[in-house]
C-alpha cells in the first residue's frame, strides 16, 4: 500500500485507536458511489480525479447553482485539454464526464459509500454539514473532510449528541488533498480520536484508487503538511521583513537549493496569504508555542488586501 507511516506514528496509533471500540467491522471496503460536498477549487478537483481514476459515479453537491455550473464547465475544460494533449482519449473523457452528477442538496447523498466534504473553512458550517451527513448517508458510509486546519475530532463529535455513541464519529476521517488535486499526488489521511481503523484503511484504499500517495497522521494542529510548510513560509516572510535577504534571493535559494518548483514567497502567493495567516493562527493558538507566531509583514499584507495571486498582488504582481 502506498502510504507513509513513521515508526513513531505506528507505535502511537494503535494506542489511540484502542481508546474506543470500533462500531463497524468490514472486509475490503468497496466504494461504488462517491459524494463530494462543495464544487469549488478543491471539491471539483476531487470529483474529477475520482471519476477519471477510480471511475466511480460522483454526486457533486453545492448549495450554489453558479458554483455547480462553473465547476462542471471547468471539469469539461480540463478533460478537453487532456484529450487535446493526448493524455486521454475522447471516449475516456466522455466516460469521466458522464460519471459527474451535479446536485443541489445533501439529500442526494443517501446512496453513497464515501463522501468527501470540501466547503469553505468555517468550523460551524462543517459541523452542521457533518451532523446532516450522519443522518442522510447510509450507516456504512465513510464521512471524510478536506479541512486544512479544523480538528477532525471536533468535526467527528458533531455527528452525534451522545459522545459515547461512536457509530457515526468512528466513520469520520480527513482526506486532505493537495492543491491542485489533478496534479499533486500527495494526500494526508488524518484520524480523529474517534476514527476507527476500518475507516482509516478504507480512506487510504480509496485515495490510492484515485492514484494518490497517502501519508497518515493523527489529529494535531496543522496535521503534517501545514505543520511543516507554513512555518517555512512564515520564516521566509520574516527573513524578508527583517532584511536578511530580498524577495528574489529568498525564493531563488530555496528553489535552486532544494529542487522545488517555486520559492516560499511565490508559493505563499499561490496558496493565498489569508490562508497562510489563518493556518499560522491555528498553529499558534492551538499549541500556544511562540515559534508559530505569524510574521508581522504577513499580517500587514493581509490587512492591505494583498492576498497573492487571487487578488492580483502579493509578494509578486499578477
Ligand atoms: N484551496 C486550497 O489550496 C486548499 C487546499 C487543501 C484543502 N483546502 C480545504 O478545502 C476546503 C474547500 O476549499 P476550496 O478552496 O475548494 O473552497 P472554495 O471556496 O473554492 O469552494 C467551496 C465550495 O463550497 C460551496 N458551499 C458553501 N457552503 C455550502 C453548503 N452548505 N453546502 C454545499 N456547498 C457549499 C461553495 O458554493 C463553493 O463552491 C476548505 O476546507 C479548505 O480549507 C483548500
TrEMBL record:
Superkingdom field: Eukaryota
SUPFAM superfamilies hit by this protein: 6-phosphogluconate dehydrogenase C-terminal domain-like, NAD(P)-binding Rossmann-fold domains
Binding site for NAD(+): 38-43, 62, 121, 126, 148, 179, 310
Recorded metabolic or biological pathway in which this protein acts: Lipid metabolism; fatty acid beta-oxidation
Start and end residues of each 3-hydroxyacyl-CoA dehydrogenase C-terminal domain: 222-318
Keywords recorded for this protein, A-Z: NAD, Oxidoreductase
Residue stretches in coiled coil: none
Site feature: Important for catalytic activity: 176
A single BP term in Gene Ontology: fatty acid metabolic process
GO molecular function terms noted in the UniProt entry: NAD+ binding; oxidoreductase activity, acting on the CH-OH group of donors, NAD or NADP as acceptor
Gene3D superfamilies referenced in this protein's UniProt entry, alphabetically: N-(1-d-carboxylethyl)-l-norvaline Dehydrogenase, domain 2, NAD(P)-binding Rossmann-like Domain
Pfam families xrefs: 3HCDH (PF00725), 3HCDH_N (PF02737)
Entry's family note: Belongs to the 3-hydroxyacyl-CoA dehydrogenase family.
Name of the protein in its database record: 3-hydroxyacyl-CoA dehydrogenase
Organism: Podospora didyma
Organism phylogeny: Eukaryota, Fungi, Dikarya, Ascomycota, Pezizomycotina
